[in-house]
Amino acid sequence: MSNISQTARRLFRSQTLSAFRTYSPAAPIARLHQQGPTRSAVVHDQALPSQTESPSFLSHTKSQSTPQSPHHESTNLDTLISQIPVVQNLRESHSTYRETRPHLAIPPPIRQHHFVGGSLAGPGKLAFAPYMWLSTGKSEAQAENADRASSVVSVFHIGQNLCGHPGFVHGGLLSVLFDEAFARCVSAAFPSGLGMTANLNVDFRKPALPDRMYVLRTETVKVEGRKAWVEGRMTYLPLALPSADSHSIVADSSLLREDSEGAVMVAEAKALFIEPKFADSMVKIY
């Protein structure tokens, strides 16, 4: 009886090791694009992990070049932000859109425990606090709730350390960022300025790539008493990070446009927010 048991264990161990040696995380991804050289496949080809090399963000080998400080990296990205056309337009429309950095307004003792402002912040993750532009203007679609309608445009960068499958940003992170921008968007709909997520639905349209700048647009579409419905879409710009020696001068400005050929709308979402009855007792963080 023991001999049979030992033989079974050896066979199981052999099959397991064989499967481990032949498994390649890139193979399942590659199969997603076998139906032809679609635009999506071309755009995302560079994100596929090499069959012979580990993705750079999984490598534990230190670079031979002198690493940039977090402050220097953030400064480069902040400078790059000012070159994005949508940002330039929003800043010129300061009478309609108000620029904010809500996570920087959170007191440090609280911010360190905040998911987006603390846990997800830093080099390789969210390299800088998201920029947000809040509008409370009127629109025909929101005529009956025009005084409480709002929209938010958020710009942020997602680094390489927030992936799920190698080479692709974790879908759960996109849901979190939608939720964060939605909460800011519906703040104008409630007297307390606070809303809690009752329902959030995200439709993932294309794989999201790391090391890209993202633009998230949201809009409050309906308000009824303590309820507010909001919708949004998220797009990444095709430009990767500038090199360490660059001065953030982008040679091809089309790479910073949402309507450029390489820009990809990765997800759309809808949510219902409710102003809690105990809003007055909640800690104000912004």
Task: Describe the 3D structure.
The chain has 286 residues and is an alpha+beta fold. The protein is 27% helix and 21% strand. The radius of gyration is 23 Å and the shape is globular. Residues 48-69 have a biased composition (Polar residues). InterPro entries: HotDog_dom_sf (IPR029069), PTE-AB_protein (IPR052061), Thioestr_dom (IPR006683). Residues 167-234 form the Thioesterase domain.
CATH level-four homologous superfamily name: Hotdog Thioesterase
Quaternary organisation: single chain
Radius of gyration: 23 Å
Distance between the termini: 68 Å
Q: Give unreliable regions as ranges.
A: 16-68, 139-143, 243-248
Q: Identify the overall geometry.
A: globular
Here the CATH topology equals: Thiol Ester Dehydrase, Chain A
Number of helices: 8
Instruction: Give the integer mean of the pLDDT values.
Output: 76
CATH class: Alpha Beta
Number of domains: 1
Work out the strand percent: 15-25%
Helix-strand sequence: HHHHHEHHEEHEEEE
Order of the strands making up the biggest sheet:
1-2-3-5-6-7-4
Main sheet properties: 7 strands, antiparallel
Number of strands: 7
Structural class, from helix and strand content?
alpha+beta
CATH architecture field:
Roll
What is the helical fraction, as a range of percent?
25-40%
